[in-house]
Design a protein that fits this description.
There is one protein chain. This protein is α+β, with helices and mostly antiparallel strands and 333 residues long. It folds into two domains: 8-148, Rossmann fold; 150-316, Hnrnp arginine n-methyltransferase1 (Distorted Sandwich). It has helices at residues 16-23, 26-39, 55-62, 75-87, 127-137, 160-168; strands at 2-6, 45-49, 67-72, 94-98, 110-115, 139-146, 149-157, 175-176, 181-182, 188-192, 204-210, 219-226, 231-245, 248-251, 263-274, 279-289, 295-304, 310-316, 322-323. The protein is elongated. The strands form four sheets. Strands 1, 7, 10, 11, 13, 14 and 15 form a seven-stranded antiparallel sheet that branches. Residues 193-294 form the Protein arginine N-methyltransferase domain. This is Protein arginine N-methyltransferase domain-containing protein.
Length: 333
């Protein structure tokens, strides 16, 4: 099992070594390549947002696209992609564009829009707002989007190995990184290799992201989980299942082949022993921080034990000033 802290603003995305890890993950890359082969036809135009080193843009060119616009906002990664595109002899068909998709324009509208910027719980990299903007400005009427939709699931877990690492590995209860320091329970994590046996209940749908429509990034939702076995409740795991095309699915659940997304782990600082039949009530909120462009999260609730006592919990990865949600965004789904 591998445990990786997840941060909203992550400087490691500009590290080419991280992108080499991504493209070596066949369980991540191959489904996207299969979807591209199904959707991209000879002579069409394609735009990829968050192109990284260009592996999917190259797949679109190989599938017959006459022009691919590869948009990337990290300058070091764009330079790396340029070398890769030139070495592949694709510089005529793949045009690299530096910048955020929100601030650039394309010389023409495209037939296919690709964005492999799915966060561990779907929208934590802002894919729905990115696609909604690009869909209106870049995509032809009737054009295709890869992925089509993303379903996110959440479940209470007994992840004692991960919890032990969080609570004991970091000296003085502090994670120190090149760009910030924070308490280990003021973050959430990616677990690579979580076994299904660590789940404590039936998963519930946390979010449903429709890339052809509008999905709120900020929300507050309630869940009620019935514990299926005696264990120690250490937090929640979340993952996504995305439909890339009609019959190409990418699944990051604990039952699926592992990917470098893993499962997102939202730990609680004070674990709770539970028995079969106990009920865990969760309110999960995706909130807006004025200093950040992506959601921050709050996971809070109560463990209702059959013995009659209740154990509350409250955790978040907020670091800045919380901006109050508008009333319609506080609706409980």
């Amino acid at each position: 099992m591998l445990l990786i802290p997840h941060y909203v603003e992550h400087p490691f995305y500009s590290n080419p070594a991280l992108h080499l890890l991504y493209i070596s993950d066949e369980n991540r890359v191959v489904p996207f390549q299969n979807a591209i082969e199904q959707v991209v036809s000879e002579g069409c135009c394609v735009a990829e947002i968050g192109a990284g080193c260009g592996i999917l843009s190259r797949a679109a060119a190989r599938a017959g696209a006459k022009k691919v616009y590869a948009i990337e906002k990290e300058p070091e990664i764009l330079r790396f992609a340029e070398r890769v595109i030139i070495s592949a002899g694709m510089q005529d068909s793949v045009s690299l564009i530096f910048g955020s998709s929100f601030s650039i324009s394309l010389p023409e509208k495209v037939d296919v829009l690709i964005a492999e910027i799915i966060g561990g719980i779907g929208n934590d990299e802002g894919i729905s707002s990115v696609i909604e903007d690009a869909r209106g400005r870049f995509l032809k009427s009737g054009g295709a989007i890869i992925p089509k939709k993303i379903d996110v699931f959440i479940c209470p877990v007994c992840a004692e190995e991960a919890y032990s690492q969080i609570s004991s590995v970091y000296e003085k209860d502090l994670i120190v990184a090149p760009y910030e320091a924070r308490r280990p329970f003021k973050a959430y994590y990616e677990i690579i290799g979580m076994p299904p046996s660590e789940l404590l209940s039936k998963p519930e749908r946390l979010d449903a992201i429709d890339l052809y429509g509008h999905t709120e990034i900020f929300f507050r939702r309630k869940f009620r989980f019935s514990v299926s076995r005696n264990a120690r409740f250490t937090g929640f795991a979340a993952w996504f299942v995305t439909e890339l095309t009609g019959d190409v699915i990418l699944d990051t659940s604990p039952w699926a082949p592992p990917t470098c997304w893993g499962q997102s782990y939202f730990a609680i600082k004070h674990t709770v022993p539970v028995v079969r039949g106990d009920v865990i009530e969760l309110i999960f909120s995706a909130m807006h921080d004025k200093q950040a462009k992506r959601p921050y999260y709050v996971w809070e609730g109560t463990v209702n034990r059959k013995a009659g006592n209740k154990k509350p919990f409250y955790e978040s990865n907020f670091q800045g000033e919380i901006e109050a949600l508008e009333p319609e965004k506080r609706a409980i789904g």
